[in-house]
Q: What sequence folds into this?
């Protein structure tokens, strides 16, 4: 989440560098890939049969019941290790995408593509973090929520320490994104 919060804090920079509506596109790039991932992590499809009316006759099609199609197979086999692995690898992947931002060409398409990957990886980590809380005390859900909200003050601290304004220098932007990656 800290990667996304950091990108949002750079919106004035990106709007000046690219175009004013870039903020809307940045949000779409982040949230649209995450929606199906979050849905797949939580969905329960339980189809026992489908009635098809053909030529005035009812015909039942047998369809295999599928439960929680995204995660349950791995969790059943590997237990909480699967959730830990998804959580850890997703945060690492989001960090790699954030670290790559200042190293790749600074174009709208590059920023939007990497942002969509960050959104997808954060969605996987978000879903896995709430799955992990089921193994612990109910208070852990509060801790997970605080962890996501806590990104804001950290990003604010980095922007103050680096003395960043609406048009950060290349060095400030690189250092800022690399620091976010390390967190």
A:
């Amino acid at each position: 989440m800290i990667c996304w919060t950091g990108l949002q804090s750079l919106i004035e920079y990106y709007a000046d560098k690219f175009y004013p509506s870039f903020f809307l596109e940045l949000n779409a790039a982040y949230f649209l890939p995450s929606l199906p991932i979050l849905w797949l992590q939580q969905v329960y499809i339980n189809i026992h049969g489908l009635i098809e009316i053909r030529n005035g006759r009812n015909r039942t099609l047998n369809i295999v019941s599928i439960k929680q199609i995204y995660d349950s197979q791995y969790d059943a086999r590997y237990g909480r290790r699967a959730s830990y692995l998804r959580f850890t690898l997703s945060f690492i992947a989001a960090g790699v995408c954030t670290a790559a931002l200042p190293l790749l060409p600074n174009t709208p398409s590059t920023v939007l593509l990497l942002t969509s990957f960050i959104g997808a990886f954060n969605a996987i980590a978000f879903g896995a973090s709430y799955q992990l809380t089921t193994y612990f005390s109910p208070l852990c859900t509060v801790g997970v929520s605080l962890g996501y909200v806590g990104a804001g003050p950290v990003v604010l601290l980095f922007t103050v320490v680096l003395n960043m304004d609406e048009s950060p220098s290349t060095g400030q932007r690189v250092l800022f994104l690399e620091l976010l990656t390390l967190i």
